[in-house]
Amino acid sequence: MITGALRQTGRLFALAAEVSRAVFRRPFQFREFIEQFWFVASVTILPAALVSIPFGAVIALQVGSLTQQLGAQSFTGGASVLAVIQQASPLIVALLIAGAGGSAICADLGSRKIREELDAMEVMGVSPVQRLVVPRVLATMAVAVLLNGMVSVVGTLGGYFFNIVLQGGTPGAYLSSFSALAQLPDLYISELKALIFGFIAGIVAAYRGLNPRGGPKGVGDAVNQSVVITFLLLFFVNMVLTGLYLQIVPPKGG
Amino acid sequence: MSFGKQNIWQDVTLTLPAGEVSVMLGPSGTGKTVFLKSLIGLLKPQRGRVLIDGVDMVSSPERDIYETRKLFGLMFQDGALFGSMTLFDNIAFPLREHTRKRESEIRRIVMERIELVGLLGAEGKLPGEISGGMRKRAGLARALVLDPQIVLCDEPDSGLDPVRTAYLSQLLIDLNARIDATMLIVTHNLDIAATVPDNMGMFFRGGLVTFGPREVLLTSDEPVVTQFLAGRREGPIGMSEEKDAATLAAEADSAGGVRTDAPRVIVPQLEPSPGLPPRAAVARRRERVLGMLDRLPPAARAAIQDTYARTAGAPTLRMPATGSGS
Fold first, then answer.
1. B42 contacts in chain A (CB < 8 Å)
2. For residue B54, what is the domain's CATH number?
């Protein structure tokens, strides 16, 4: 049981290492990358925008209510923006990429595997990792980084709107507290998180897709597991990255 | 070779004679497909070696294995075509991946192969839109497009009607005459087994029963072989697995020695279609088989001498050796 779990973990890391190596191997599958990028982007853009507006609003309302009680209302803007950019945005992006893009990638690779298409590819001397997995992982990473920018902006605008319109905050206080507390490294860590989360979503989807157990039912199970495993890893990695960031980068306000 | 605790087969050692056509027989579920996949390095046996041109497909570096695989053409049981590509793109795939040919050149080669397997007119279809037999033939066309030195066919006959199977047998022989490739066909079709191969082997009970010139297996007295070739129920092969000793004894009693097997006749091997060059393998095999004649069982020896008495001699050729064993 424990050795089984360790073996799976080891093979997941081995695939991650193999993909990282294969990224630099020629020829790069540019066409496949564009197709996958377009696919992942098309299934995630709209849901991401729709999720980020209420999420930004919820954070704005919650933080606004808290700061009101503490008498620090003028800092609502800065606090809610930081929460959106550093936490909410990369997580929303990663959940959508894993749920919409990763599950499709996993199902696609899994059905190819049970139809022996991947074996056929290997027999023809073409590595499925280089031909199929690398473009998909790069696509999820690229979409994650770009989508993260969009979600940050939309979420921040949503928070601004709700704070000003519903809670009677002043635009000036919102913006000045924003520039008083937020700094550029907040944006960097946000994009770095999105990049890493995109990588994890791509790798886990590919790993479960390449190793389905026992026929078509196995592919369904693999898709399910890939989404669950990705979520677990995301929140864990997010905790580690956030902890490191708070230790390493000095806060601007202090 | 085993999966978990289930041992599929062990101690299989053989050398595929270069340029000749070999057939591997065996009841369903005896590991024939597993054997093919081990030859090409898709599955790794726990012990042993598979040598192709000096490269061990079990333990060599991944790079060498990928390089060696370019020598192979493997026809999968159900074609294993890429579902998202048309037949044309499927067959063109190896050319586009491994060669720098221009698109017009690729088109010419692919259409030639499509015509060879009789699929002209279907090149724009997706694999989901054609019958199983057509998928199989398309899989064969894809396996042949890089002019492989070694052709492996996994049950080329399953899902084909007897007429198409006969055409396919002829196609395989013609192919051998044309490109002089080493061919291994895994099947349980007796017509293919009787007419196509130069050499035959048989899998049973997790091991290789025999492997050698076709006459050896066709004249063999081994109970497994006779049962299989005659398609009888009496014998060591059961419905799901091999039978146990008690069932076998009961069977022998009830049969009471009234077996009515007609004496087996060795059907002559297929010849290449008119207009094609003679198969270079025939001459090589003749020399090889005559060289090992005194080590063969008497029945096989008589059959071989009988065969060669009927055919005239042919010039001999030399070829680089391609061997495999595990």
1. 119, 122-123
2. 3.40.50.300
CA distance B66 to B132: 29
Q: Is the pLDDT score of A218 beyond 60?
A: yes
Tell me which chain B residues have a C-beta less than 8 angstroms from the C-beta of A122: 42, 66, 69
Contacts of A124 in chain B (CB under 8 A): 69-70, 93-94, 97-98, 142, 146
**Which residue from A minimizes the CA distance to B145?**
A124
What percent of chain A is modeled with pLDDT above 70? Answer: 99
Domain residue limits at B198: 15-211
A1 domain-assigned = no
Based on the structure, what is the number of domains in chain A?
A: 1
Per-residue b/e over A116-136, b at no fewer than 16 CB within 10 Å? bbbbbbbbbbbbbbbbbbbbb
- Which chain B residues contact residue A116 at CB under 8 A? 76-78, 80
What's the total number of domains in chain B? 1
Q: Does A148 map to a domain?
A: yes
Q: Which residues of A lie closer than 8 Å to B, measured between beta carbons?
A: 111-112, 115-117, 119-127
- Per the CB < 8 A criterion, the answer to whether B12 and B47 are in contact is no
- Around Cβ B26, how many Cβ atoms within 10 Å? 24
- pLDDT tens per residue, range B79-137: 788 888 889 999 998 888 888 888 899 999 999 888 888 888 888 888 888 887 788 88
Domain for residue A5, yes or no? no
Maximum pairwise Cα distance, chain A: 69
Contacting residues for A17 by C-beta, under 8 A, at least 6 apart: none
Q: Is residue B191 part of a domain?
A: yes
Going by pLDDT thresholds of 50, 70 and 90, the confidence category of residue A137 is very high
Would residue B254 count as lying in a domain?
Answer: no
Distance from CA of A115 to the nearest CA of B (A): 6
User: What is chain B's mean pLDDT, rounded?
Assistant: 78
Among residues B223, B229, B218, the alpha carbon closest in space to that of B248 is found at B223
Let me know if residue B220 belongs to a domain: no
Strands (E), B69-131: 72-75
Residue B175 lies in a domain: yes
Q: Other CB atoms closer than 10 Å to residue A192's CB: what's the count?
A: 16
pLDDT in tens, B292-307: 777 777 777 777 777 7
Residue listed under structure tokens 């591997």: B24
Domain that holds residue A148: 29-248
Whole-prediction pTM value? 0.79
Dihedral angle sign, alpha carbons of residues A24, A29, A34, A38: negative
Domain for residue A34, yes or no? yes
Out of B80, B98, B142, the one facing A125 most closely (by C-beta) is: B98
Mutate to test the interface with B, among A123, A127, A210 (most CBs of B within 10 A): A123
